[in-house]
Each structure stands twice: as structure tokens, then as C-alpha cells.
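Comment thread on ticket #2218

A.B. wrote:
> Attaching the input chain for the structure job we discussed in standup.
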Amino acid sequence: MRVAMVGRYYNRQGGVSRVLAELSDRAARDGDDVDVYAHEVLDADPASPVRFVTVPMRTRPVWLDVPSFARHADRALRRERYDIVHVHDGQALHADVVTAHSCYAAWLDDVRSGAGVKGLLSHVYPRHVVTDQWERRVYRRGSTGAAVVAISRVVAGELERHHQVPPERISVIHNGVDIAGFRPAASADAARAALPPEARVADDRVVLAFVGMYFRRKGLEPLLRALGGLRDAPWELLVVGGDDDTPFRALAAELGIAPRVRFLGHRPDVAPFLQAADAFVFPTSYEPFGLVITEALACGTPVITARIAGAAELMQDGREGILLDRPTDPDELGAAVRRFLSLSSEARTAMRAAARETAVGASWDAQWARYAALFSEVAERRHEGQPAWG
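C.D. wrote:
> Ran it. Output below, let me know if you need it in another format.
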């Protein structure tokens, strides 16, 4: 097939951009003729047969970036003929398949439900208004619209509620995970020895890891409060992420756990920390997917996370980790951590094996196979003059 894949950024560093790169490379590897339409390309394999088409985009003001990119991308796409045009998050309107990585309307509705100035200003802040209107334009195109891939059942439900996208129009295909780059260490001792000196802990301690860019939304505060109630347990926490840690350091000191919490800042490679951890704790309050969850699973590290996180749909409570109903509740979170700490070594070993097994089933190759089947189905329908879905 001749395939166009469209997204503002192509690289292996972000979320949407990572999906664009992984899928386009696999499509080309399997023999498809692939053109990627992007504003910026990084981390491209010079040996890959993927061709890149540079798309102009306005970057100021910031709320015009997506409409600007989409307008230029649509203009370029109309000059070509493809079997499949695959677009990420509605970054072009000329599409056969759209992958929804989130639902902006759902997030915005949550912001507006809160009291205070932030909720009021969200009704007039240009980026919110423009992005919300654009998203509605993308998904409310009725039977003539593209087939939709949601990266989780969480996102699928939000599209149904906020944009009335028919459920039969939506396929759920989770994001993949790099099972070669994220894999179990040779041994627990080797994993801990590989950590930088500032992250090393005593052998008799249980290592908990938290990785995230937005500490407040990802749940670091309730995690610290939960651990404040577990001072009798032999844990240490590694916090990896580039957010401002000042208020969280102060909270750890207030709770009397500061010596047991290591704030390690941004790290370009988080795999060593996930490999060295006995458990990855991620009590996020909202997460359309959460790639770091599957990366932890791929390292064979049990995960304690919110049931509402998209990637948690791949897990079963007690099998790969522990699922939280109220992730922001320190009492429930503390009970979950204590539950993990009480597991026997045999139970933890079984949990680690299950985590890796689940990640392998969600590898990029496995998820690309699901996309490839959908692309073939949509291309056949289009060839017969039918809508992309029906």
C-alpha cells in the first residue's frame, strides 16, 4: 500500500511523535510505500526507506500551530494519491484513519469544573478555545469521517461522550512499548549496581520508583503522604522527572521521610531506574495512556497505578501489580504499597514475570500488526467507494 502518516513531530522522545515514528518505520519495513508529513524530524534512521515531507507550521501564537500545520498538510496531501492517510490527533482533516491520543474536551471539562480563576479563564483562553473547536471539527464529521483509533478505552469513552463518536467507528489499539530497550536486568544486584551513586540504596531496602514530568498531576503528593504513614516499612523512593521538586522536598521533610526520598531530576534514560525498582508507583489522577507504565512492565517491574490510566487496561489487579480506585487517596495508596511490601518473594517473582509477559504482548510489533489489519480493511472499503468505517 501507499501510506501517508501525518503528525507535527517525528522522533522517539515524545508520546505522539514516538507513535508516528514507530508505526511509519514498521509500515515501511513490511513493504508499504510510506511518506511521513511532519514539521520537524529527529532520530530518523538513515537506512529507512521512509520519505519525509516537510510541512510548514506557525509556531506563534501557539494556539494556531495545529490548524496551521493541518492546512498546509491537507494542501500537500491533495496533490498525491494514497491508499491510507493516517493522521495523529486530527493534525490534518484529509484522513482515512485518525489516532486519538487524548480527548482535549474531556480534559478541558475537568478544568472548567473546578472553582476559581483558572476555570473561568479557560472559557476565553485562546489555546483552549481554538483547540476545543478544532477537535470538535475533526470528530464530528459523521459517516464521511475517518475511522478512529483510540489509544485506550478511556479515550474511546471520552470521544463517545464529548463528541458523540459512534462506538462502531472506534478501534482501541494501545500504544506499543520498546521491549528491547526496556527489559529486565540480568539480576536485581546488577540493576542496583548500575544506578548512579546518588540513587543507590541499601540491600535490605525495597526500592520504589516514581517517574513523571508533572509531579502534581502524576500523583507525587499523595504518594509522599502515603509513605509518610509507612515510616515503619523498609522502603526508599526514587523520584525521576524534570518538574520543580521544591514543594515536594518540603513536604517530604514535613512528613519526616526526606532522607528516604531521592529527587534525581530529569534523566534521558529512565530504564535503569525502572529495572532497579522493586515496584513502580504511579498514582496519576488522569492518564489517557501512560507509556511509562508499559515501560515499567517491560522491565519486569510490578506497577501500582490508577485503574483509570489507559495503560492499566492491560493489567489485572494482583497479576502485574496493584490497581487503585482512588489514586489520590493517601490511605488507599498506602494500603496498596503495604500490600506489595507484604508479598512473598515467590509472589513478587510471579508478578515480575507477568509484567514482562504483558508488555511483550503489547510490543510495537504487536500493535503495528493491529494497525496493519485496520489499514487493509479501510483501504479495501475506500477502494470499493465506501466510507472508511461502517
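A.B. wrote:
> Thanks. Noting for the ticket: The longest strand covers residues 33-38.
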